Structures are given as C-alpha cells and as structure tokens.
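Quarterly update from the structural biology core.
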Amino acid sequence: MRAAVSLLCTLLASALAQAATFEAKDAGDHYDVSLDGKVWLRTMTPKYDAGNREDTYKVYTHVFDFDGKGPITKGPGGKYTHHRGLFIGWKDTIVNGVDFDTWHMVKEECTQRHVAWAPVKTTANSVMQVETVAWADGKDKKFIDETRAITTMPGENGARIFDFQSKLTSAAGTIQLTGDLQHAGMQVRMAQEVAEHETTTKYVLPAGAVINEDDKVTGAWWACCSCEVGGKRYWALHMTHPGTCKDVPVYSIRAYARFGAFWEPTLEEGKPQQYNFRIVFSETELDAAACHKLYEEYAKSAPAAL
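Predicted structure, tokenized:
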C-alpha cells in the first residue's frame, strides 16, 4: 500500500512539475513558448516598417530543434523569401474587386500585422497562445480580422504537437480567398538549407492519395515531410481537420520542404470561419501507419472554438 501511495505521489508531483515548467513569454518582436527551459515555438511579431517590408510584412511561427537552440523552419530570404515557418495566406484575396496577395505580400503592399496577445491558456500538458492579426491594405485599411491560436503539447515517443487555428472574419464585405496549391492555404516551410539538398527529402502519404503533376496531391487529409536540417532527420506531419473544409483539400509537397493544404473559401462579413490544422514534429520515424493513427485521433477531436 505504501509503495502504491508513494508511486501516486511521485506521479502527481511529476505532473505538477511538468505543468510548472511551461512558459510563454512576449519579447516584443517575438513570442516564445518553452518547456523545461527549451524553446519549442517562436512566433514572429515585428512592428511593421514600410522601409523594411520584407522582414515585417507577415506574422509567422518558427518551430525549434529539439534542443531548443534554434529554428528548423525558414524565415526571410533564401529560396522564396515569403515562405516562413508556419504561415497562412492566399495569392488572390479578392476584396471589393481588388486583388490582394496575402501569400507573397506584394500586390497593393498588403500586410498581416500583429495587434495583440490574449492571456495565455495553460493546462497540465499544453500551452495555448492566442493573438489578433490584422490583414490590411497598403493604406493600413483592414479587410480581415484574424484570431490565430497555436496550442503546443508533447506527444508520444518525444513528438511535439502544434495545433494551428485561424479564425478569419471579413471586415470588408464578401471576400474570396483563392489562388493555387503552391501559393495559398496553410503551409509549413522547413529551413532554407533543405533547398540545398532536396534529394534527401521524402514524403509519406495516406493510402489512396495520388501524386499529380506539379507536386499536387489529391485524396489526402494529411501529408508527412521527412527532411534533414542541421544533420538531423525530422518528420513533420501536416493534418487538416475535416471540419475545416467541405471537400478534401489539395496538398502541395515540394522537395525543398514547403508543404501544406490548399482550399478556396469565401468569407462573408460578420460570419467568421475557423480553420484547424495539427502539425506533429518528430525525431522518430513516422511511417504511413503511424501518420494515419495520428490523423484518426485528430479527426475525432473537437478543436477549441476561438
């Protein structure tokens, strides 16, 4: 009996200790989520500077290596500077007949600007960050209000789970979010160095999925990228929750490790739409069976309402 009580106390102490180690810190131009003193996630929120558009026109999130030393996702510069970490946008964002490019951030010089952080939400095994992002034109007139949340939690076998949620609300009538699979949707871009050894990149796809021309994948609710960064191989599984879109999304799977889901929604003013995704990073191999199991678990879940 004493042994059982002792074990229970140890487990409770361990759970409490784990809860206490979570930390979310706003550093002004970025926001870190750490566990056990190691950064897991860094969301970049620089103040917009028209004289330095390239570094400040977009809100995005880096995923860090498992030692917490630096990002394994891409920032500005390199092959396709607009590809950055975990990000969302549409090449053709049609607002009252004007085409804003919220992917490349060039047409009409539109921006995604961090507005404010909500109080962080923590549980015994997760941290949820919630921010407000304004999508605006070159004259700072907002056309979309976004609530963006990322929930960070540990997974099995040392994996790291990031639930990326975006709630978009039109502030300018009916808005069409369109483009193509390579330039729209919610996607991930791994570190620039992957583009320097693309032949080492591999993808795991669900049974029945079809790879078409131009790295287009149909028939998939998930895709897993396996690539090397800093001499280590990582597996990054991108999953789309079935409540996000009516039809199966189209996945893009580039060899330089930019991958994710494309769909084309329409926003109506005053009627917010919420999109939900789960990204799992692992240092242990994720084969098709493991990916499918993780997707089934996610598909059955009920994402938090923002």
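The two ends are 45 Å apart (CA to CA).
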